[in-house]
Batch of 2 targets.
Target 1
Amino acid sequence: MPHIESWVPVPAGSDFSIYNLPYGAFSRPVSPARLGIAIGTQILDLHAVASAGLLDDICDRRVFLGGTLNAFLAEGREVWRRTRLRIAALLRTDEAGDPRLRALDTAKFLVNQRDVRMLLPIEIGDYVDFYSSIEHATNLGRIFRPNGEPLMENWRHLPIGYHGRASTVVIDGTPVVRPSGQRRPPGSSAPVFGPSTRLDIELEIGFVTGPGNAMGTAIPTSRAREHIFGLVLVNDWSARDIQAWEYQPLGPFLGKSFATTVSPWIVPLDALDPFALPSPAQDPQPLPYLQAGGRWAYDINLEVDLQTKRMRDAGIAPQTISRTNYKELYWNMAQQLAHVTINGTAIRPGDLYASGTISGSTADSCGSLIELTWNGERPIVLPDGERRTFLEDGDTIALRGWCAAGDFRIGFGSARGTISPAR
Amino acid sequence: MPHIESWVPVPAGSDFSIYNLPYGAFSRPVSPARLGIAIGTQILDLHAVASAGLLDDICDRRVFLGGTLNAFLAEGREVWRRTRLRIAALLRTDEAGDPRLRALDTAKFLVNQRDVRMLLPIEIGDYVDFYSSIEHATNLGRIFRPNGEPLMENWRHLPIGYHGRASTVVIDGTPVVRPSGQRRPPGSSAPVFGPSTRLDIELEIGFVTGPGNAMGTAIPTSRAREHIFGLVLVNDWSARDIQAWEYQPLGPFLGKSFATTVSPWIVPLDALDPFALPSPAQDPQPLPYLQAGGRWAYDINLEVDLQTKRMRDAGIAPQTISRTNYKELYWNMAQQLAHVTINGTAIRPGDLYASGTISGSTADSCGSLIELTWNGERPIVLPDGERRTFLEDGDTIALRGWCAAGDFRIGFGSARGTISPAR
């Protein structure tokens, strides 16, 4: 990639280089939500940019004046591409730049990320969670069915998934109240009620959709790119004890529905193109509607950081408890979208489709505590001597994700949540 | 109940007596959606009523000027109650009536149901489908696990449910395209792709929510009534072959997500009060958070009508293939809502929570074809000699539901759908 300078300074190691330009929503105190694009430590205020007429040749400026991205998502790929190029041009300093923004009072177009609260930038229509990491599905099979085949018979034939709860998708930093519910203690015939004692995380990446399809029609893998806008980090918090008791025969429900945390920035697929790779081989070859040409794997580094309250109080930095990568996912986004719609299901702009837990092939590259501690048998030992199998009150989990090449970095920010005691 | 006359004529046997006053959304050709209330063969135009100032002392008239009920649902029970009393007063002819509407040009406030298209009256946030009929769950257990206990161990302890697809909830009369997908033929190790060959229905009733709760808090059964606005008929179309292959371990997904049909009218719970009954006994007694006092069963007659294309072409009336009643449902609405929120899940105005298939205890009172035909072993014989196990292209299913007492009736209209060939 050519080196491009932005007139907004980008500190070394920032997630938000000019190659990224992710979209989010923010609010200043007592102001309504606005859309913005992260650059370095700043946010470029899209409301201000659009109001100055700098996007009027691309689409109706009202697309940028609301508090969510849904109208922009509905515009489709050509508008996304032209907007991205324009924003880059307005920010770059070389001769390919567009000098109009710099000629104005730039302070009116930028806001410091420290001074705002980030908000969920999409109204989510439907939220689907897949189960697309073969390592994760295999690990869970080994833990729960130690004497059987770890993978179920259908797993290699279709991207298993289910509908999750849209109303409780929250932004980075939102506290997560420990859920209460029914669980059945080992050896007991009847359930008991109380706060979950096996509160877990799931490290995932989700894609956010653009234009929808008409109900009754499908989106083939060859057209998936037109319908996928970008990616976010997703933590699919999971209460394993509630889930274990409830999930037969209709799947996870209250074990998952209490909270799902996403990163504040949606990174456009266009920004991630330099990091696209061929997907892993699939055996057996999937049915034709699931065959996807092109480069649908993305080399995105992922990590999970844990900091307990005791660590925080003692000034001990968060401990990275897992490092993995999105690129090994068995089922890719194009296949997931083709599968969701093959029965005629309608998608809408702003749907969220999460990957499922992303686990690598080693013990320290798993995306959930149930795998990292092997169902609680091997506690994680933290720098201050604390041990963790599942999460305790006051624990903070932060997911991070980024692509890096040479001197630039394209990152997602973080998806953090701290566990509050059960009510 | 006292006899009340409406100045809008209500034909004998109409679903829409003055005791009903259900809410819906309609559009005339080239006009935007409006809210309305069914009365006899007419619709009282709520946009017109509100614009005439006849509801201004109850709440901001803008609540009634949009095309969906969500703002009204958010207002809460006192506004619902006062609006209902006002509409009844504006329509009744006795001395308890409010003469203001009759004094105006009433033609401007009424539209014939024949002249409009009905639209989905709510923007559905989350759609949940329960599994709350013990007869249905037992029947499916007997069919799929003939040598085991028909009911799973958790079934009597909690209202099993899962999240369904919100984007494909459609209104009465919308064609249903036969879904395609993967299924595994008996005896085969690999799946095949094609149109579903086991397309089924599920006769259900759903409740629509009013004001939401804050995330992290629960709605106890004692407060459920404040959060439940009214009921609709629901047909949870199901492709049994797709469902059977996909549903382990995360539950139904593409076997259900292609379409869910609801009746056009939301019948307020206040209208159904005269038909409320104590819920059936539960054994074992549920955990305290699921104990619900009050009368949460409703005596709603339900039927499923089937008309094939050949019957339609020959002028043969639809055949009623099942008659049942909502009142026997094991888990009631208050319990369902308390369960959904016990882990802190947020509900929102306009969520839809369906009961799950409602089956009675006899062979002809089941709410699905898989039960009525015992997994296809006992075809239904139709008046023209045709046989049905599962649905064929051109078949029309109509669900109907009503309460009846003396000279009045409170009905839901119908939830109809005709199967179009797979694309």
Note: Chain B touches chain A through 64 residues (CB under 8 Å).
Target 2
Amino acid sequence: MHTLYGNSISGNCWKPAFMLRQRGLPFRWVEVDILARQSRTPEFLAKNPNGRVPLLELPDGRFLAESNAMLLHLGEGTAWLPRDDYARAKVYEWLFFEQYSHEPYIATVRFWVAYMHKGQEWAEKIAEAMAKGKAALGVMETQLARTPFLVGESPSLADVALYAYTHVAPEGGYRLEEFPAVQAWLGRFAGLPGFVGMPCTGP
Amino acid sequence: MHTLYGNSISGNCWKPAFMLRQRGLPFRWVEVDILARQSRTPEFLAKNPNGRVPLLELPDGRFLAESNAMLLHLGEGTAWLPRDDYARAKVYEWLFFEQYSHEPYIATVRFWVAYMHKGQEWAEKIAEAMAKGKAALGVMETQLARTPFLVGESPSLADVALYAYTHVAPEGGYRLEEFPAVQAWLGRFAGLPGFVGMPCTGP
């Protein structure tokens, strides 16, 4: 059985849980309190030297870090990862976009505002991050005005990765009304068969 | 023929150029001046709505963004992307690590210090970023003290992605002497057959 070390409010941790469920793979959930620095203990660092969740322990006891690496690993051979070379490359593109241009501004602002309650104190830094987060939502809007899912007609790992923090962006103060194609896509994604949302508290 | 839109001082742009050369694929290089905001013109945004380089134009005229997506696309079917499921997943892991935990601190500090000349003015912000950059180098050191390349005995796309900005980290003020296994690996990588380094000014 797989074991998933994660934090239940984390969109990154929700991603592999979603894909394990889609695959019908049972898994054990181990809650890791990141505010209490439980991902930085010597025991945890021996499992993941980068000290982050999620961390996936495979049935054979080997470890895999990075939520989007887990998506690719678990999605291989399923309809979530297209076989066509170009469609597959576009999935990769969105996964890297998510970690570089989206998550650092959208997940981070949500965490600062909704969990650390720094909305007022860090107003300037939040405004800077939100400008970049809105740019990322704009890139999604451009694509989703053209196609129902990020890589064409069918849902893929790209949608899983981007759904994670986009749907909770309003917790950080983002106004999704400004991005109507993104809003419609969120509804479409949550209506997919077998959809289970956040918080993520195990199988 | 492929066309690569890039900036010749960018490690991200060097990555797909390296892999095109390894594959023996001829390509056209189009220099994009990012300081002059040439990646934000309407013409460029029509090609890549995220307004970044590198951007790869495939021989059929379709576009692919995100340097590490290009590595996966160009590396498929070669020894640079292992066939073994777990080794392949570990390559993915390092690629996401690079974009999330390494590049934002190591490439960015290099750019601020060596190209924007903000070493003094932004000293505090640089010190904060360098603490995270050193943590990333520490994660690499842990692995490279165990295996000659990031995913075991042979070089993979993980090494290409991490070589890009690690070897120029000293331009931002990082002291690689503190990471002897990383230093030895840099030498090993640069000694590989067909190695061509930066700056990247075309095929």
Note: Chain B touches chain A through 34 residues (CB under 8 Å).
